[in-house]
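Deviation from plan, reported transparently: adenosine monophosphate complex.
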Amino acid sequence: MRARAEDLRRDGRKLAVVPTMGALHEGHLTLLRAARARADIVILTLFVNPTQFGPKEDLSKYPRDEAGDLAKARSCGIDLAFCPDVSAMYPAGAQTFVEVRELQQPMCGASRPGHFAGVATIVTKLFHLTMPHLAVFGEKDYQQLAIIRRMVRDLDFGIEIVSVPIVREHDGLALSSRNAYLSGEQRPAALALSRGLAAAEARFRAGERDAAALIAAARAPLEAEPLVRIDYVELRDATELTAVAQITRPVVLALAAFVGTTRLIDNRVLASA
Ligand code: AMP
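Because the crystal trials were delayed, the predicted structure below was used instead.
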């Protein structure tokens, strides 16, 4: 991969990478199209990264469909797909990790210890191997995006980070590879996540600036849904992810909830017009 990237760079090509864990859906394809619009060479990476899964998480049952993923990605006009084995990415004795100390702590970091060190480390490795000029990430994983932006700045990667808004189903559910786990009964219950965010945003647009009131508005649809168990609902500074009591600058309202055993996330940035 590195040799190909070096050749392409030597030829003056602009390289974009889109890191994914596969099970591609329209959200991923939107990232690939954003990359296609900005670069000469689009590199898709497919790697279910074990170091970002906790011991009780869904690593072994995470959906995998490499052939289907490559067919979908080809329809978006990708140039290269990098699909390494776990043993190639983590040789025996690997013990070096990248951590973004503060941004990795709250929200998903609090419920998934070690998750973001796994993410920052694999993204670092994929950047070193694909040598891109730019990389595209989704705003669906808001904290991940904030962490990668900070890591790239702090460690001088010299890679432009492009973000793409959340792609949703027609009824509002954010697309996720994990939606495939939902049963027929759970699928409508999962709408409580986007409904909670919409309810809070409506209160914000109506002038509410108190974080506790907005969080309560977001929690209500989730608490009313018996198949849903809240992991967290938080309102934080949009860049620093620090807690906010009264909104005076852009914030992110982020939540995670279990629908059955499936953990889903969603978020919305609230900013005055
Ligand atoms: P994943 O395969 O879940 O690790 O996601 C790979 C990339 O796709 C990440 O940058 C995600 O933020 C992005 N992504 C996943 N779902 C969506 C979505 N519904 N809308 C936009 N981007 C997404």
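The beta strands are 15-20, 41-46, 80-82, 134-138, 160-164, 228-237, 251-259, 262-270. We consider this an acceptable substitute for the interim report.
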